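Crash report, auto-generated. Payload:
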Amino acid sequence: MDEKLKQRLDGLPDKPGIYFFKNPGGEIVYIGKARSLKDRVRSYFAAPADLKVANIRAETADIDFILTGSEKEAAFLENNFVQRYQPKFNLRLKDDKSFPYLKLTLGERFPGIVLTRKVEEDGARYFGPFSPASQARKTIHLLNRYFGIRGCEESVPGKRRRPCLEHDLRLCSAPCVGTIGETEYGKSVADSILFLEGRTGQLLKALKQRMDEAAGRLDYEQAGRWRDLIRTIEQIRERPRLISVGLEDTDIFGLAREKDRLALYVLFMRGGKVRDTAEMISREPGETPVEEAIARILDRFYGQSEDLPDKVLLSHPAASVRELAERVSLKKGSAVRFSIPRRGRDRKLVEMAVRNAERLLGKPEGENPGLADLARILGLVTPPSRIEGLDISNTGGDESVGSVVVFENGEPSRSEYRKYKIKTVFGPNDVASLQEVIGRRYGRMIKEGRSLPDLILVDGGKGQLHAAQKGLETLGLGARPVISLAKREEILFTWERNDGLRLDRTSPALKLVQHIRDEAHRFAITFHRERRKKKSFAS
Ligand code: SF4
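Recovered output after restart:
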């Protein structure tokens, strides 16, 4: 087994979460959930294996994971990520239909509870997803039986004169014929929401109070009904701890700190589904208050980001958060709210982000000092763990080629290097050829939903930098950090400083970018020579 993969397996925690299997190109080929990441992921690599597992194993070159609070939360995330990345081996989950939700039709005077597979912005509240689907049906039955919530999709009030069989079976309080009033039914709906959100402590407290009040009025029949409901709730061993879904776009930040190292983990929720994650580690002097450090990171983060949410959830307070919210809202053109959730679904999401931030601090620090140095010089929030270097070779004016080299954590990842025969440019035109390579390389990565590099480096000066920026803008990647390094002068041009930066010869950042630039050059020129040789044989 490959050494990197072995290290990844050894580093897996005995905790619930979702895992990602990636191929040598960084593409996600399989996503799964586990109660214990350590046991589950390792089981894929223990012989013998069925055909599907053997195929997954054969294609996997790297493993990543996200920690969650429970297996249920993992199921929720797994479904979101599978739909986002469509991994080839997740055939079973590719269809949205595998995961039902409960829909509480809050837009109606007498809301009902029904099963659905589609989350819409229609005033209803959605809970789930449920796996297996039978769990969703059981929960509906429970709400019908003990809270009297209707399970039909009739208009209520409507034209019915008599309730249906559900009422006879004690599975509905029959609001359709006025057996229960709007206020009392509303209380049952509120109780149901507490139950579905897993806030049973609060629900039991309210029910006990109602039972005591009924007993105080000598209404023993009603008091007995409350007592039965209290017992039932207490007996339900596996109380739902579900994440209800809204359709807002939310960024969720979890923070962890250890001496002068600060880790932030972000979950990006779009349209109610976690779509992506990001991680950042920065160094902050130990005496810097956490509030200030977070404020600085968030300011930089939203200064660079173009995909702005409606809501930002934080695990810790940030200094001058009101001013920051104003700046981000102005940039977005609509209100962006920042808050620290104390309970409920949002708190659970923040806790998930914190767990993952803590995990980051447990990771060994990057061995290449150039990465942190480069991040500092370029003002990047986090060291660029994946850098791609591009070069064009066209000596002699024909058979032009382009190269892309990939560096992961400061080390070349040779299996990911790619070469390109220039197709649309004739004659020695570096700038146009570079734009063609950028269009083909990143256009394809976008189409395949693959992670883009944190930083792109092109061989050359200002002209090459501008060509690269233009090529990226055409793909909608104008905000992606790109730099160029000119030969001989060794001047670094950046997307912000195109007057150029002359780095100290001993700078670890300069050594790293020189290594990447030279590797891209070597790879391009070797390919170019091969092509010219072939051509001269052919003629
Ligand atoms: S009793 Fe009325 S409200 Fe209840 S399920 Fe039947 S039709 Fe619907």
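Post-recovery validation: Residues 92-98, 237-244 have pLDDT under 50 and may be disordered.
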